[in-house]
Design goal:
binds zinc ion, alpha+beta, elongated, five-stranded mixed sheet, 329 residues
Length: 329
């Protein structure tokens, strides 16, 4: 199965549904209500459906496309029940295209761009779509600790948000927004495995308790930790077999052998380019979803766009109740 943007745009809605079903249920339908595999697909026969009957009885048409009936519990369900696609009014094909677009754009895609590309009626619909897909890209924190088997994990924080630094070119416009601590930007902590995966999320404060908790919750005890010399990390080395090494950035010491934070700097560079280049403005309450999106693409940077898209679609399983009505400002 290939799910590049070109592949998806060639699909009819019927084929898009079949594709979605194959991804969700590679071994046949599973009832989302009771877990039974004894389900049959209800065929919808358009020729037998009469709108008059529906109006008279007040019932929705009995056999919607893609509807299944479970023999275990007797409930009906469709392939989108219990996923982020549930209750969406958009065609499945549109969803798959949006997945393909977000999974292949290294620097991210703005809702406006997605709206234009998919011909969506409203910015709001595009905005919701983007955020639901970001949610599908989020992973459980305990889905594998970082640095297993004595790997190296780089930990750092960055300050993200506010206005772009060069609004109208470096020499024009308002003064560049300030960087770093003490500004209105939101601190984001990231943990990046060398040659591996990344985890990133916004935090309230960059203090010792926050950063050490982050490390303890996400890093395997066998790992080696590399950070800058910020003293909030002090003492963490004793808890990890590989110890803790630091890079002194203030003295322009960027690397000492393999003690460097180049990997995590690459990760933050990508996230910042996305936030300032593609999204222009990201409000603090939504920043965590952008972090999910960039970590997801980072973790799967070595697979094809199609494989990444399929992974993201699978991630939409069981994530229906995600957030209350996010409103873009
Ligand atoms: Zn059932």
């Amino acid at each position: 199965m290939s799910l590049t943007l070109t592949d998806v745009s060639d699909l009819t809605e019927e084929q898009a549904r079949e594709t979605f079903e194959r991804i969700r249920w590679p071994n046949g339908p599973i009832c989302p209500h009771c877990g039974s595999v004894e389900a049959i697909r209800l065929e919808w026969k358009p020729e037998t459906w009469k709108p008059e009957t529906e109006l008279k009885t007040g019932k929705r048409r009995a056999h919607r496309v893609g509807l299944h009936k479970c023999h275990g519990c007797g409930e009906q369900f469709s392939s989108t029940t219990g996923t982020i696609l549930e209750q969406s009014h958009l065609p499945i094909r549109t969803w798959l295209m949006a997945f393909a677009i977000l999974c292949s754009a290294k620097k991210g895609v703005s809702a406006l761009q997605l709206q234009r590309q998919l011909g969506l009626g409203s910015y709001r619909a595009a905005w919701h779509l983007c955020h639901r897909i970001r949610h599908a890209m989020s992973r459980e924190p305990l889905a594998g600790l970082l640095g297993q088997g004595g790997g190296t994990v780089e930990v750092d924080e960055a300050y993200i948000g506010g206005k772009p630094r060069h609004p109208q070119g470096p020499s024009k416009g308002p003064k560049h927004s300030r960087r770093g601590r003490g500004t209105k930007k939101t601190p984001v902590v990231a943990l990046v495995e060398r040659d591996g995966r990344a985890r990133a999320w916004p935090v309230k404060h960059v203090d010792s308790a926050t950063l050490k908790t982050a490390i303890r919750e996400h890093v395997d005890p066998s790992a080696r930790i590399v950070t800058d010399e910020l003293n909030v990390y002090q003492g963490i080395g004793a808890e990890f077999k590989g110890g803790h090494e630091t890079v002194n950035h203030s003295e322009r010491e960027y690397a000492r052998g393999d003690v460097n934070t180049n990997t995590i700097e690459g990760f933050f560079a990508l996230l910042k380019r996305g936030v300032y280049g593609s999204f222009h403005h990201v409000s603090p309450q939504h920043l965590h979803r952008y972090c999910h999106e960039f970590s997801f693409r980072w973790d799967l940077r070595k697979v094809t766009d199609s494989e990444r898209t399929i992974e993201a679609i699978k991630g939409g399983e069981g994530k229906r109740l995600m957030y209350r009505n996010p409103i873009a400002k």
